[in-house]
Amino acid sequence: MSREEVLRRVRAALERGGRADVDVPRDYLDSHGMDENPVELLARHLADYRARVHRAGDEAELAALIGRLLAERGARRVVVPEGLPPRWLAGAPGVARVPDAAGASPPELDAVDSVVTGCALAIAETGTLVLDGGPAQGRRRITLVPDHHVCVVRVPEQVVESLPQALPRLDPRRPLTWISGPSATSDIELSRVEGVHGPRALDVVLLGPGPQGA
């Protein structure tokens, strides 16, 4: 069917009143009454997606942990989004900070070793991190081009159980980026290739009370 024919049928339906308002019931459950703690469920699903999950009880532990994660990657340059607390990088004094500049090109970002960000929230049921470009998150491209992403989730306040609980807390007008593990794809023979559409390595730090240690 041609494009013109599709548009003709749409116009004809609209002329017949096809745009009548329909009351859509929205009485679905926003929680499935899970027995598992949402933070622990998030950690388990992130690990299932091959993200590395770490814990930090306070920002002093966080700084030391981020310093170690960057050192393990041999990172010498890290993108720093606006609003990222400087103390988060206090454990990496020898790493050069690259600001999240509007004019940064993909090749320039590709030359950076890592990016450290916060997030807007995280969804336990799906193991998904959501970034909306707010403070400590930066522009979308800084979390898509560099090969290594360290993302900090404040727990439990930034963790929701389900997608229906997440949507009311998000502004659809903002540039939402949904991340479920490191970037990966598979060919027809199911050979997994990582780093095609985003970072090859994802480290998630759960910042807050709970079990400690990497």
UniProtKB/TrEMBL annotation:
All copies of domain LUD, residue ranges: 42-207
Pfam families reported in the protein's UniProt record: LUD_dom
Record InterPro entries: FTHF_cligase-like_sf, LUD_dom, NagB/RpiA_transferase-like
Source domain of life: Bacteria
Protein's name in the database: LUD domain-containing protein
Organism of provenance: Streptomyces boetiae
